[in-house]
Amino acid sequence: MARDENSTPKGRYLYSVVPAEAVDKLELDVAGIDGAEVHPLVCGALAAIVSDVEPRELRPERRNLAAHSAVMRTLMDQTHLLPVAFGIVAGSEREVRELLADHEAEMVEQLEGVKDRVEMGIRGVLRVEDIFQYFVEKLPELRRMRDEVYAGGEPSREEKIELGQAFAEYLQEFQDEWADAAVEHLRSIGRIRVNEPRSEEEALNLAVLVPRGEMEAFTRAVEELAPTFDEHIELNVTGPWPPYNFVDLRIRSGEEEAEEAR
Amino acid sequence: MAQVKSQSNDSSSLAEVVDRILDKGIVVDAWVSVSLVGIELLSIRARVVIASVETYLKFAERIGETAAVAAPGEGKKQPQAEPEKKEAEAEAPTAV
Questions:
Q1: In what helix (H) or strand (E) does residue B82 lie, and over which residues does it extend?
Q2: Looking at this predicted complex, what is its ipTM?
Q3: Domain boundaries in chain B?
Q4: For chain A, which residues score pLDDT lower than 50?
Q5: Exposure letters B18-47 (e unless 16+ CB within 10 A, then b)
Q6: How far apart are CA B95 and CA B15, in angstroms?
Q7: Mean pLDDT computed over B28-56
Q8: Within an 8 Å CB–CB cutoff, is residue B91 touching chain A?
Q9: For residues A32 and A7, is the Cβ–Cβ distance under 8 A?
Q10: Cβ neighbours of A252 (radius 10 Å)
Q11: Which of A49, A144, B52, B64 is deepest in the core (most CB within 10 A)?
């Protein structure tokens, strides 16, 4: 798609913010959202990587997510970067440049923090046939509670809520313990972000910011972590990813910003 | 001993991608142009769902079923529970 700032009003889809000095060497031979050409917009020490897009609500469907990811992968092979979340569309190039100018200091600082580092993901999944059976067998207290609640036929709604809530709390305790153990093993490698597991089958979900030269140490640390975990837990290691879990920049509109300022 | 499985970025599931690019990284609130209509997103809904009465009821049902497995016949004590369970399942998230 040809780029023409004066033609129809188009939005600018944002993929990433990179150091301006990286732009000269960047090869952006990758199709963006809708197959559009991907190009940099430089402002001061920073450059935004964007493509033109018809202004509309974008659906996070496979095709769009894949296009966003492909651009990120092309970029991360060539420079350090701040990833932008999916579906962020500016009204014009001027707006993009204003964003970079307004947040230059914090973006430069965050870029420095992820330089020469990649994000690796670790997700622990409980591979058991029945997660409830697993915990009932593991926890005598839960088993006792189950037997009491179900002893006299159909339990009341309140009894069920109490039992279910107790299970949720036990689950949370285990998830916290597993996360603490993993953090303990991996903290020497780099920064760690612990995310909430997404389901009762998930034991652990975290991201580690690994220096490029420390990948072997990271792999070793994961291998050392594995024996300390329950045999039913499978540790899925993914990456390298752009540092999504280590870029923390939520830009709110003026009023909200003032209200929520810490 | 837990098993370790490594996947390259390319072969990672869509869920891994979604988990990252949907709400992490730089977010400019005023420029968010995402339509979630008709899409169930695991990563967004999960926490909301776990801390709800519907989920507690679902958990209790499932725990009750483990008793039925241990002692067949006891499971017959809870037939009316079905509609409630279906409701909870309908609200549970599914992958994209």
A1: helix B82-91
A2: 0.84
A3: 11-91
A4: 1, 262
A5: bbbbbbbbbbbeebebbeeeeeebbbbebe
A6: 7
A7: 72
A8: no
A9: no
A10: 15
A11: A49
